[in-house]
Amino acid sequence: IDRAASTGRSAFDGRLTYGAAEGDEVDWDLFDIVSVNYYAYHARRREAYADDLWCYRRWDKPVAITEFGSYEGAPQAGGMGWDVVDYTTQPPTIDTSLVRSEEAQATYLTDVLTVFETLDLYAALVYEFVTPDAPHRPGDPRHDEDMASYGLVKAIWETDESPGAWQWEPRQAFHAVADHFR
Fold first, then answer.
1. How far apart are CA 81 and CA 51, in angstroms?
2. What is the rounded distance in angstroms from the CA atom of residue 146 to the CA atom of residue 154?
3. Are 146 and 154 in contact (CB under 8 A)?
4. What span, in angstroms and rounded, lies between the C-alpha atoms of 32 and 28?
5. Which residue of 36, 94, 106, 113 is 20 to 30 Å from 122, comparing CA positions?
């Protein structure tokens, strides 16, 4: 991380940060903004989530949440919520215990945004807009890779075998985040 920080400073005059995973040991003296990829909601009380984030203020620097996101069941897996796809099969296979719930993702994101707004954060970045290599296959949940996507939108492939000129469609979360900021 030291080398990355010095390389960044040599090429960039603006504020520098590093998107650390939750629990990473980082020398924040090297950076201007303390940033964490924070997925630790785990269906807990909002107050506990906010309390957990206060430890990142001890460097007396702006704090940014550089990744947060969810789908049904993902909060329990934290940042590894995407790891439910078996890529050894063609097409890749999804864990059949997953439940597609765009409402759960939309609710989670608006709840977390509400918490973040009470914390005077420098930034909070939803992870992510789209996962283009995780196509939505509504006809067969076993192969609907979009179920493991944190995206605000679904990737719609031209064919099941190839993205070609893929498109996207908004999920409920897309509208929920947009409504939150209206």
1. 23
2. 6
3. yes
4. 8
5. 106
Tokens of 112: 């977390």
- Tell if the pTM clears 0.85, that is, is over it: no
CB-based burial label for 54 (10 Å; 0-12, 13-18, 19+): exposed
Please list, in sequence order, all residues whose beta carbon lies within 8 angstroms of the beta carbon of residue 182, skipping any fewer than 6 positions away. none
C-alpha separations of 107 from 11, 71, 98, 104 in Å: 40, 10, 17, 5
- ω into 91 cis (within 30 of 0): yes
Tokens 């992870």 sit on residue: 127
In the chain, what are the helix, strand and coil shares in percent, each to the nearest 5?
A: 35, 20, 45
Local structure of 65: helix, strand or coil: strand
For the stretch 85-142, pLDDT in tens is 898 998 889 877 777 788 888 988 898 898 888 888 999 999 899 988 888 888 888 8
18 within 8 A of 37, measured Cβ to Cβ: no
Instruction: Quote the CA–CA distance of 173 and 107 in Å, as a whole number.
Output: 8
